[in-house]
Design brief:
It contains four helices and two strands, in the order αααββα. By secondary structure, it is mostly helical.
Length: 177
């Protein structure tokens, strides 16, 4: 039998793993295809970071009591992580999408894309070319556009994905308690 204090470490780790395993399963239900790569990527439903910090808060509350000052610290850290996931990191992903589109359009004018048709991301995992969408007009692509990597657009979370991580964290903590 594990000591009571071990669950403060085990609960959050289990919640994070459960959230990461749920990502490809939820994509399979929604898009009818399985994507193992989603298990090792950030972003998506549910938020594994949120699940981890919420499970930590719940474990501290259940095992140490509501008057423990460490619980207050854990709550503030959880709020910061959830705000960051749905705010700052989400905006970073949107900026990456704009930069990817801009770089793709610039490469398209320089003849670096097939058939000069730009790439468009239709959902969180699918990018394809769309005819009729014209790239931005540029005289010549500079040298730094030639080998620029495609930026990760799935960094942060929508508020519903953070809520999903919150639910996973609470459920795992209550189950282990």
């Amino acid at each position: 039998m594990l000591r009571d204090s071990a669950y403060i470490w085990i609960g959050p780790l289990v919640a994070m793993v459960v959230a990461q395993v749920l990502k490809p399963l939820l994509i399979m239900l929604r898009l009818r295809r399985f994507d193992w790569a989603r298990m090792r990527q950030s972003g998506g439903m549910p938020s594994s970071h949120t699940a981890l910090v919420v499970a930590l808060v719940a474990e501290l509350w259940l095992r140490q009591g509501g008057r423990n000052p460490i619980l207050g610290i854990a709550i503030f850290i959880a709020l910061i992580v959830m705000y960051d996931a749905a705010g700052v990191r989400w905006q970073t992903g949107r900026q990456a999408a704009v930069l990817n589109r801009l770089l793709n359009d610039l490469r398209g004018q320089a003849g670096h894309t097939q058939a000069n048709v730009p790439l468009v991301q239709t959902d969180e995992n699918t990018t394809h070319r769309v005819k009729g969408l014209q790239p931005l007009p540029v005289a010549k692509a500079p040298w730094f556009l030639v080998d620029w990597p495609v930026l990760n657009e799935q960094i942060g979370h929508k508020p519903i994905e953070v809520l999903g991580g919150f639910v996973v964290g609470i459920v795992v903590a209550l189950y282990l308690h």
